[in-house]
């Protein structure tokens, strides 16, 4: 795919704006947990609705669900042992499963409370790190069936009391059923029909500029339509309608960055009407993956919504804790509520993820590389593709070890084990490697290996070489290096391959090293250290000449692993070319075995070198035929080529890799 070339000044401005927004969001999120502490019930780990009228042991059900959704999804439920909710997931699950399923005067098993509590149980189950008990799961299944039946009986639209069915309640029910894997075809069909009908109806009302238009109802209808209809199954007309309705919603945003209040959803008997809340809706829009491509041009609108938080925030504590009020219930009391506060912070968390993705896209656009989004969750395979990757031996103090095992056990699987916390905006732990130098002779597929590491993680691969830093001229070398590496330090869930950097990282004391090489070595050191410190991406450096590298570049703290990449082992080559293995078996069946030197040459041939002679080997019917072919191949084998001398001793690529084994770092393998 051809991408428009981004000029340095243009890219710099775009990145600076994105990064400033990222930093502002992270600063705001820093007050999230302290603010929610003020609403927390230390007895149960749940959350009270408001700061006043708190009754210990009796938290609000819906508020607890909303607060838990934010704290769990952002990785803040289990990261602070002093938090009132820390370690309370199991007891909260018991309390919810065994308690009443009504709230604030609403009847038992109403779809609003039921949906919120089912979502809370789903989040808290993740927080406690183990499944529900069988009795708890039975309760969940019973409540899920109630929701499912309401969708079917009401032809998709969910309502409470005498109020009409709303897309808000319908989307909530569909979302919960889908999260629990309980959205059956009949329920999905009913909800889909309701959603599309409501979407078209509300879009027309808004286009007609009627006073009863409700952009919240339109947006929730669009969300429900997306949840119940695969994008690939939509006709072009329906896809266009979905995008048009999103545009209508964002066009209704006022100059303050918020939206006009919609129609009432239902009525609390004791408190009054309930309405949609801006930030609660924006969280759902940002987390619906099918809508992501339609939101790429909505960042200015989303930024305005974030900026509106400043004008609507209410100080609620002595240490800059903040809260937000919905203004829905008892409008004469603009008191901040826990659920609105959690929704506002949850929006910041999801917008931060959206911005980081935009930064990642900006990097790829700047270097004119094709972009693919990282897969969500631990969906990477964790293993190098056995069909594409042929294993080789790595020298170690304990003897040769598998390159596959080294990379999978010391890099790929540890990163995948913590990928959830990276998605939540936190770095990998210090004990988890996130970088490696891959070194070895030419032709050992180091670049392809980086591609397979990225595939195993489910993250996009960005290949960088010196041309990306010198394309604007050597006089802009420092500026380009600073821009590119600052971008890399600001993003996450990315594998970066630094390729062909040999000449730009020469040892600073090496005779003949040019000034640009010495300069870039110095310039890259702090940038690589920053990548190591933030620990949100995996970065690899591929080189043929590690012996030329400054020790300051390759030492621990900048690169966690230093791994030689040698040609595939003979056993792996014979697995890949079974016809050669069969021919060798026939040749040796007469009792005359291939000599060890020839077998060693077969082991030393690169993939392409072995492939070149594989047909000749497959046709050989005697050990002599194998020997002649192998000896001919040995004359041009990369590993056996002279690369230098030490006195009268000839040094080959194979010798050089063995001599550099002292620099190997293979993790715990």
Describe the overall structure.
The protein starts with 7 loop residues before the first helix and ends in a 10-residue tail after the last helix. The mean pLDDT is 89. The strands form 5 sheets. Strands 8-9-10-7-11 form a 5-stranded parallel sheet. Among the domains are: 38-153, no CATH class; 372-566, Rossmann fold, CATH 3.40.50.300; 570-636. By secondary structure, it is an alpha/beta fold. It is 51% helix and 7% strand. 43% of the residues are buried. The chain has helices at 8-29, 32-37, 61-73, 89-98, 111-128, 134-153, 167-179, 185-207, 215-228, 236-251, 278-287, 299-312, 338-366, 403-417, 419-423, 446-457, 466-470, 477-490, 515-534, 551-554, 570-576, 578-588, 596-604, 607-619, 623-634, 653-659; strands at 266-268, 272-274, 314-315, 322-323, 393-394, 401-402, 435-439, 461-464, 495-499, 538-543, 561-564, 642-646, 649-652.
Strand-helix topology:
Elements: H1 8-29, H2 32-37, H3 61-73, H4 89-98, H5 111-128, H6 134-153, H7 167-179, H8 185-207, H9 215-228, H10 236-251, E1 266-268, E2 272-274, H11 278-287, H12 299-312, E3 314-315, E4 322-323, H13 338-366, E5 393-394, E6 401-402, H14 403-417, H15 419-423, E7 435-439, H16 446-457, E8 461-464, H17 466-470, H18 477-490, E9 495-499, H19 515-534, E10 538-543, H20 551-554, E11 561-564, H21 570-576, H22 578-588, H23 596-604, H24 607-619, H25 623-634, E12 642-646, E13 649-652, H26 653-659
Parallel strand pairs: 7-10, 7-11, 8-9, 9-10
Antiparallel strand pairs: 1-2, 3-4, 5-6, 12-13
Helix pairs in contact: 1-13, 1-18, 3-5, 3-13, 4-5, 5-6, 5-7, 6-7, 6-8, 7-8, 7-9, 8-9, 8-10, 9-10, 9-11, 11-13, 12-13, 13-18, 18-19, 21-22, 22-24, 24-25
């Amino acid at each position: 795919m051809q991408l428009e070339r981004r000029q340095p000044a243009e890219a710099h401005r775009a990145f600076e704006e994105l990064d400033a927004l990222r930093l502002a969001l992270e600063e705001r999120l820093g007050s999230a947990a302290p603010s929610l502490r003020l609403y927390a019930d230390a007895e149960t780990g749940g959350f009270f609705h408001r700061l006043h009228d708190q009754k210990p042991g009796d938290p609000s059900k819906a508020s607890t669900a909303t607060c838990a959704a934010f704290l769990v999804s952002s990785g803040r439920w289990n990261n602070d042992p002093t938090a009132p909710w820390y370690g309370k997931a199991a007891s909260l699950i018991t309390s919810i499963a065994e308690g009443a399923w009504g709230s604030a005067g609403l009847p038992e098993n109403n779809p609003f409370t039921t949906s919120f509590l089912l979502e809370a149980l789903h989040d808290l189950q993740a927080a406690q790190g183990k499944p529900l008990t069988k009795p708890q799961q039975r309760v969940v299944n019973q409540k899920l069936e109630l929701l499912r039946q309401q969708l079917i009986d009401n032809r998709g639209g969910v309502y409470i009391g005498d109020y009409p069915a709303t897309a808000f309640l319908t989307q909530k029910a569909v979302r919960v059923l889908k999260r629990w894997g309980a959205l059956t075809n009949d329920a999905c069909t009913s909800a889909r029909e309701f959603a599309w009908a409501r979407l078209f109806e509300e879009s027309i009302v808004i286009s007609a500029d009627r006073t009863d238009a409700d952009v919240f109802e339109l947006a929730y209808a669009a969300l429900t339509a997306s949840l119940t209809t695969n994008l690939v199954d939509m006709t072009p007309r329906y896809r266009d309608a979905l995008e048009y309705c999103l545009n209508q919603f964002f066009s209704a945003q006022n100059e303050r960055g918020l939206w006009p209040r919609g129609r009432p959803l239902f009525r609390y008997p004791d408190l009054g009407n309930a309405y949609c809340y801006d930030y609660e809706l924006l969280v759902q829009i940002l987390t619906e993956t099918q809508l992501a491509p339609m939101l790429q041009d909505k960042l200015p609108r989303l930024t305005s919504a974030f900026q509106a938080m400043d004008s609507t925030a209410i100080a609620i504590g002595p240490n800059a804790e903040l809260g937000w009020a919905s203004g829905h219930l008892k409008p004469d009391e603009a008191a901040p509520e826990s659920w609105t506060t959690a929704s506002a912070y949850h929006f910041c968390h999801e917008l931060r993820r959206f911005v980081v993705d935009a930064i990642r896209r900006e990097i790829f656009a700047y270097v004119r590389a094709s972009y693919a989004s990282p897969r969500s969750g631990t969906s990477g395979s964790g293993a190098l593709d056995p069909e594409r990757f042929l294993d080789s031996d790595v020298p170690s103090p304990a003897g040769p070890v598998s390159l596959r095992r080294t990379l999978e056990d010391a890099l790929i699987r540890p990163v995948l084990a913590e990928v959830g916390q990276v998605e939540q905006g936190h770095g990998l732990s210090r004990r988890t490697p996130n970088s490696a130098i891959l070194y070895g002779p030419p032709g050992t597929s180091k670049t392809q290996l980086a591609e397979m590491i990225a595939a195993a993680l489910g993250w996009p691969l960005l290949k960088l070489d010196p041309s990306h830093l010198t394309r604007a001229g050597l006089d802009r070398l420092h500026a380009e290096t600073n821009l590119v590496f600052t971008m890399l330090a600001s993003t996450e869930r990315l594998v970066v391959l630094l390729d062909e950097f040999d000449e730009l990282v020469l040892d600073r004391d090496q005779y003949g090293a040019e000034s640009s090489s010495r300069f870039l070595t110095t310039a890259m050191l702090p940038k690589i250290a920053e990548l190591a410190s933030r620990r949100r991406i995996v970065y690899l450096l591929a080189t043929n000449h590690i012996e030329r590298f400054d020790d300051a570049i390759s030492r621990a703290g900048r690169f966690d692993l230093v791994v030689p990449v040698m040609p595939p082992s003979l056993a792996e080559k014979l697995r890949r070319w079974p016809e050669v293995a069969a021919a060798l078996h026939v040749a040796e069946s007469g009792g005359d075995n291939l000599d060890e030197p020839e077998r060693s040459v077969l082991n030393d041939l690169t993939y392409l070198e072995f492939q070149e002679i594989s047909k000749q080997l497959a046709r050989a019917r005697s050990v002599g035929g194998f020997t002649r072919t192998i000896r001919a191949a040995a004359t041009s084998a990369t590993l056996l080529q002279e690369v230098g001398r030490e006195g009268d001793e000839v040094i080959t690529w194979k010798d050089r890799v063995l001599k550099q084994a002292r620099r190997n770092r293979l993790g715990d393998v």
